[in-house]
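Need residues for this backbone.
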């Protein structure tokens, strides 16, 4: 029987409007992530929070020990929910994330968080490569405008491109409402 875990990626204060690196639509995405988090808690399913800190005080955001590097109040860990501290884009790299999943006999992971084009993308691809069945809740993820070759790519296009790529070969990509309907039906 499949056992699932929710992985919340970098839903941290610096990504919110008063932070050092605000994302487009981050409040709405965090609200959706909080809904999914509540459903996992009610079902008694595993929840793992991931938090990023850069390793130097000259970091553009997520400075070690700063308020901006803390988890956002909408998705704070509770009770025994572990918080994985990472220093790289990929949450599996030099962390205990895989060990936590293995200890809980997890086969399926559900991913929410930030930034869609970086840490969400990296953890989804890594999890799929490690053999996990992956679901991404697209409206519980956030990103920001990007620039390439003198052109600004709006956040909505960045989000769409990354979610389309993940859906093509790495994950099931659904809305929070779609995911929650299936969870309620399965309960």
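Answer:
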């Amino acid at each position: 029987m499949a056992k699932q875990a929710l992985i919340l990626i970098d839903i941290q204060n610096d990504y919110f409007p008063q932070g050092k690196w605000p994302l487009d639509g981050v409040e709405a995405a965090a609200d959706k992530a909080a809904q999914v988090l509540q459903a996992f808690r009610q079902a008694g399913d595993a929840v793992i929070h991931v938090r990023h800190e850069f390793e130097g005080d000259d970091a553009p955001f997520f400075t070690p020990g700063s308020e901006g590097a803390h988890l956002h109040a909408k998705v704070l860990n509770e009770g025994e929910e572990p918080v994985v501290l990472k220093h790289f884009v990929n949450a599996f790299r030099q962390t205990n994330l895989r060990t936590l999943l293995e200890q809980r006999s997890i086969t399926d992971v559900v991913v929410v968080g930030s930034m869609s084009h970086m840490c969400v993308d990296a953890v989804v691809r890594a999890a799929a490569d490690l053999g996990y069945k992956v679901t991404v809740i697209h409206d519980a993820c956030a990103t920001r405008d990007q620039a390439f070759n003198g052109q600004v790519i709006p956040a909505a296009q960045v989000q769409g491109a990354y979610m389309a790529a993940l859906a093509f070969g790495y994950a099931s990509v659904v809305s929070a409402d779609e995911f929650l309907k299936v969870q309620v039906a399965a309960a």
